[in-house]
DNA sequence: CTGAAAGCGCTTACAG
DNA sequence: CTGAAAGCGCTTACAG
């Protein structure tokens, strides 16, 4: 649509405002303009004001690429992930992003959906953008092969640690979280606690978390001088169906229990549904807690479920700090603690004195 | 740990290999090295080979920042989102990312968790990185205020369209998807179909989608010459609890139905659970389909649920293409079609002849 | 086919 | 306090 604007020089639209435009507008040299805009001292206040005004008027954004060329750092870090679904990586990315923001850095995404070749290409792309570091979020909790060490920038492994103990890895404290879950159940009055685990098969994604969470439950019970309801946790997979079946197994074995630690929220959901179907009340008869605090399941279920939040957000923030200051971080795995999010499924009216 | 390596010059580690390093190693000028590496013609094959070898040996990655300075394009595009949870934005981002990758471009994330001021800062950060374009993924399906048009690079609005019809927006075809859902239910043999909607309150996130999906259901019914079970769809919110309650309402009204279109997967889940609790079999007595094909709910439920996948991935890819080639795209909203993902909840043995 | 020179947009010593 | 010059790493006409 033709409007009144007549001589809107086409080159104007094509080209972003540059420092020399600003300098010209303010009637100073580029050097002075640069100093003024960067708050360097030794610039006449009135000159500075003039330059700032000009920059404002022209909508000037300094070209970071040019600046990085000088500084040798790009102020961006690469976020390499192989976790397609993003279930775990997304909260981590969000954490990274927020921490970077404080340091004025920016995250460049690279989603390598699996193949080693893809990882390579993405590392290449990241490196050629001169990222100041790379955070690698692999698919699961299992240790991952480190990236080629020809990479000269700091690499931090998040969630799944590197198999190389010399690398810096930031992981979730699955085992510690198992203890938290038990403590919570005991605190709301449970006296007979069983653990329904995830997969016990090393080939399965998340196997490591399943083991550690189960271990943590046993730790927690032992610390409080209690025996688990079963001498061996039940292991299955990560699904609702398994949670349901596990409860049926418990019921069939005719053991008594009033608390269930389920290795994730979906298992917890299945367990809760099965208990309800069998006429048991949650949380009155049995309190149930899961892991991951995954909103779509734990929070939006008809019976809101208590869960151990793995603090993935914080994990991301820590990873960002680590990649920005690798020397300030210990090699090996740094564990980030989780926290209890209590909801209906453990809202026991605590049994008072026994 | 001290190893055999003695004179590993420290500056080597600090500084990435540069084109002039490569040129020196290959014994040619930078100009020639550059041409050789970029596959320009007019370079002696043996020279080219020598340069390539040197680049390989030295682990050379061309500095994109320097290249962009010349080309005037950075090969990166900004991904601005306000959808914290990432429920809808993540699949879109994945799509964008994959499409960009084909064009060798890269995505820079910027998660503005809401405030307009944050959006501003992030736009600023993106622009100073000289992104070639911005894809804005807002929180919901509602139209969003356009970014300031002082922005000189192409902006594409994804999922939630811009309120300005002159902007390029790529949205999901909620209404068309409603038709798809109905067609599917009819195809599996349903003859009495009700719609359980989302929120009817314009102030609620996703309200637009709720309306359009309901409209689509009515469209679909009309197209097949059928009346909806209720003359007005039920509206509530996006939760399981609402799905459950809606079914109770239907049952209370004593209407007959054998098919349910639920405005999202969680509503569908609640509906299915309620039907089961009331002794009705899904899908034998009632087939149920939801929207979003959200894996954690639709796919992992004990009864896997059919759903209309909004093809958010494709939406992201289209958005990426649009931002890379804005003139090739129409102003206003481009709708991306969805698709049916059939699972147990609609696995009707189709009624044969009536 | 090869290379010296200029330039992309900015910053930083170094003189004035 | 201000500005001319050199340089960050690369590419592209332009001579040779």
UniProtKB/TrEMBL annotation, chains A, B:
CDD domains (UniProt xref): HTH_LacI, PBP1_sucrose_transcription_regulator
Single annotated GO MF: transcription cis-regulatory region binding
Keyword field: DNA-binding, Transcription, Transcription regulation
HTH lacI-type domain ranges (all copies): 17-71
Pfam family membership, one: LacI
InterPro entries referenced in this protein's UniProt entry, alphabetically: HTH_LacI (IPR000843), LacI/GalR-like_sensor (IPR046335), Lambda_DNA-bd_dom_sf (IPR010982), Peripla_BP_I (IPR028082)
Name of this chain's protein: LacI family DNA-binding transcriptional regulator
Source organism: Demequina lignilytica
């Amino acid at each position: 649509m033709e409007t009144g604007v007549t001589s809107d020089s086409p080159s104007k639209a094509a080209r972003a405002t540059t420092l020399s435009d600003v300098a010209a507008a303010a009637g100073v040299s580029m050097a002075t303009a640069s100093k003024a805009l960067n708050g360097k001292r030794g610039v006449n206040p009135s000159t500075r004001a003039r330059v700032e005004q000009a920059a404002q008027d022209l909508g000037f954004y300094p070209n970071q690429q040019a600046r990085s060329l000088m500084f040798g750092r790009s102020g961006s870090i690469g976020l390499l992930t192989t976790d397609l679904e993003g279930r775990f990586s997304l909260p981590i990315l969000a954490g990274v992003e927020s921490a970077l923001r404080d340091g004025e850095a920016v995250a460049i995404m690279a989603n390598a959906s699996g193949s080693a070749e893809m990882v390579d290409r993405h590392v290449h792309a990241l490196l050629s953008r001169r990222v100041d570091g790379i955070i690698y979020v692999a698919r699961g909790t299992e240790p991952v092969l480190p990236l080629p060490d020809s990479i000269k920038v700091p690499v931090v492994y998040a969630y799944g640690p590197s198999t190389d103990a010399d690398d810096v890895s930031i992981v979730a404290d699955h085992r510690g979280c198992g203890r938290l879950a038990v403590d919570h159940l005991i605190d709301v009055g449970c006296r007979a606690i069983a653990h329904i685990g995830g997969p016990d098969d090393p080939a399965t994604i998340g196997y490591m978390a399943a083991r550690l969470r189960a271990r943590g439950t046993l730790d927690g019970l032992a610390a409080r001088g209690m025996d688990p309801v079963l001498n061996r946790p039940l292991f299955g997979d990560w699904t609702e169906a398994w949670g349901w079946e596990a409860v049926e197994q418990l019921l069939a074995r005719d053991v008594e229990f009033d608390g269930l630690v389920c290795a994730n929220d979906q298992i917890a959901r299945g367990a809760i549904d099965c208990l309800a179907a069998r006429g048991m009340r949650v949380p009155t008869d049995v309190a149930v807690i899961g892991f991951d605090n995954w909103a779509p399941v734990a929070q939006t279920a008809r019976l809101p479920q208590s869960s151990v939040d793995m603090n993935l957000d914080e994990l991301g923030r820590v990873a960002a700090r680590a990649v920005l200051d690798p020397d300030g971080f210990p090699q090996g795995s740094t564990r980030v603690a989780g926290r209890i999010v209590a909801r209906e499924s453990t809202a026991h009216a605590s049994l008072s004195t026994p």
